[in-house]
Each structure stands twice: as structure tokens, then as C-alpha cells.
Amino acid sequence: MPRTADLRRELAAPSSIRRIWRQSLGSIELSQMVSLLQAADMGNADAYLTLAEEMEERDPHYASVLSTRKRAVLGLERKVESATDKRTDKRMADAVRELIAGPAFGQLLPALLDALGKGYSAVELVWDTGSTPWTPRYVWRDPRFFRYDRETGNTLRLLDDTSGWAGSPLPPYRFIVHTPRLKMGLPIRGGLARLCASAFVCSKITLNGWLAYSETYGQPTRIGRYSAAATDEEKRLLREALQGLGQDAYAALGQGFDLELLAAPAGGGGADLYERLLDTLQKLISKAVLGRSDAADATSGKLGNEQSSSEVRRDILESDAEELADTINAQLVRPFIDLNFGPQAAYPVFKFHFPEAEDLALLVTALEKLVPLGLKVEQSIIRDKFGLPDPDEGAELLGAPVPAPEPQADVEDPDDVEDPAVNRALNRASPAAADPTAPLAERLGNEAEPLLQNLLDPVRAALEDSSDLMAFREKLLDLYPDLDGKAFADLMGQALAVADAAGYWEAQQ
What local confidence, expressed as pLDDT, does residue 259 receive? Predict the structure, then answer.
């Protein structure tokens, strides 16, 4: 365990070797970009890290898509799970929940996600040991304050005045170093800035060429004429007037000077060429950062496509969030528990929660059918899916309307019942009488079933014994003389009579 005094002391503050004031790269060419990437491959990544920082400052498109990827992770819900259901484990999980609930933790996450562009990000932990539990203060440190070791290229070391450019090992419990694994190999070669560097430089060259093209072909050609007797001073004034005409659209000329403006020459489609080239380079950056290209994957006029095309691909988002959660669990949650509760066999787990899109209308339909059949569903789960809070005690609740009770008929003594025609109110409908033909129809239906089966059984047997339709036809012709339908015909006659009686009775009601 480190000493308490060491936990409170800042280790990576700016110093003579850890400088914060650095000169900008200025205008960068492809050859210069290649040189600084090669230097990073050999262990000196200062110029490359400066380029990675300036790419976010000088390229609006790269800055926008990189910010989108970072904020996709920052927008996810955060939760902490206890290692077990034991009281001690639950208490440790509650302590971690309090740790991540503070505003400082919200500033830690974007500092760690700076590693997406540069390949790694280091945050120093300065512990407050004056209160219980001990909690850290998060201080983002410039990645140029560190350097990877020369032996493996995988262990980050802190530059200091004692060890010089070789650096010293990072002490435990003092730093969080996030290194996303976007590709295998050396961590310094894994940042998105390296992947997008060539497209960034080419886009700057393309934009400068487009500006020069617009200056040449975007305004009319200016021609000034002076007489043969003009002095050198008069020629100089004419030349300055022509230059000012290009910027200010006016010029003052003396007598004896002639000025002519020619229409801007056709550029041969050069403007479209620059625009297509710049658009292609921006698509490449979008593909590299978001996993999709806004313009390449979007369909103009398609509803909702503008939003979906600019979002981070789901598998990339899940990978970023899982790697960041692993870093926080190993380098923040574990030190926090060790310093406040002692080393444990199992630790609380910090996670990002990914909301799953659900068809809530389909869920309601399923519940309407399954709950009456006996399915037991916890109300709190359904409230969570709809984002509804638990009702307060005594609050007015929504519910199914209660049907009004049916009026109960008064029970009367049979001796006191008067003539129905006299006792019935004029506005009261008489009770519906039973259909007298219903028992007959039911009896005829029961008698018809065996008669119908007697007619169909020989036909079914003929169909099963036939190899094709022609054979079945021949068997039907042979069966026809033996089929006795007289009993079934008599029954159908009785049924028609009953149906006629039923229709007459219904018409009288």
C-alpha cells in the first residue's frame, strides 16, 4: 500500500521537462506528416500528439465526428452491480455508486475518451485522505508528459527530471490510463488521429487549392493601359489601382489611363473537382470514426435518415463503452475499494447500460391476452419499460372503469302478482320469449350427422383406393346407384319446414 502522504501529492504537474507551452505545427505537408509518424513509431511521439490535438482544432469535420463518437458513450446510462448479495458487498457497491454520482466523475469520462483520437489518455488520481471514504480528484495530464518504454512499447512511463526522457514507472493507485484497442499493435499507433491523418492533410491541401482556384477564376480579369509617355510612378499607381480593384471593387485613375474588365475565364469544371475530392476525404474520415459516412450512407429525403446516418455504429459504441468500463473497474473501482475497505476477493462492477428498443404496443397486446390466462407480471418491470415512476401513497390512480351494477328484480309473493298486462310499465320492454323452434332444429341437426356420414363414408373409401382422379371418377360412377339419399332428403324436408316456422315466429316478435 502506498503512503498516505504520497496519495495526496501531485506527481505529473507541469515542470521543466513536462512543458505545456508548445509551438504549433503550422501548415503541414504530406512529407512532414510522414516524418512525424515515423518518429512516433521510434518512440518520440511529441510531434504526432501535437498533430492529433491540432486536427481537432483545425478540421471541423473531424472534430465533429470524433465528438459524436465520444458523446455516444457519455450519453449511456451508468450503473454499479454488487459482487454478491452479502451485506458487505452491497455496502461497497453503494460507496462506488456515490463515487460515480458526483460531477467529478462526469469530467473524468471525456478525459479518458481523449484516448480515442490520440491512442491513450492518462488521468492522475490525487486522493483526499482527510475524510471517509477517501475519494480521488481527477486531473487530466497532457499525453506528451508520458512516453512508452523502449523495451516493449506497451508500458507508459512518466517523464521526470530524474529519469529524463526514459521516464519513470507509474506508481499504483495514482493514474488511470485508458488505451482503447482499435487495432492490434503498439498503442501509440492505435489512435484515430493516425488513421485520419492523411485524409486531414489532403483535405487541407484540397481546400487551399480550391481557395486559390476561386481567387483566379472567381472574379474578372483586370487590364490597365497607360500611354507611352507614362512615368514609372504613374505605372506603379496603375498597378496598385488594379490590385485594389480586385479587393475593393473600385479604383481611382488619372487622365490618360485606360481600364478594361474581362469576364472570368471558364475553369473547366475545376470547382466541381475540388468539391468532390473534399467530400470524398470527409467521407473517409466519417467511415473511420463513426463506422459510416453521412453522405455515403444517407438517402436524401428519407425520413429519419439524417439522424441515423450521423450516429455511431452500434457495435463500435458497445466496444468503446465496454473498454472504458474495464479501465474504470481495474484502475478506479479497485483502488477505491482497496484503500477504503481493503483488498477483496470480488469487487463491485461498473457498467454502461445499453437501452434496447422495444415494441411497447406489442407488449401491451401480449399482456392483454396473457394476464387473464394467469401470467404473473411484476408491475414495477412494466413501469420501468414505459418510464413511469411508482405511484405515491394516496395518489389518484388510473384504472379500468367499474361497470355499474345491474338492477335487481324485486322478489314478489306469487299471490300478489297481478295480470302481466296490467302490472307492466309502458316504458318497460317485455322479456324476450324463447324460440319454440330451437329444440326442433337441434334434434334435426343431431339426426342429420349419422345420415351424412353414411353418404360420405363410401366416397372417402373410394378416394383412398384411387390412384388418380380418373380412377376416382370411375368409382364414383359405380357407387352412385347404391347411394340411398331418401332418408337424408326426408330429413332435409323437415329442416326446411322448421326453418320456415322459425322465420315466421321471428317476424312476429
Answer: 60
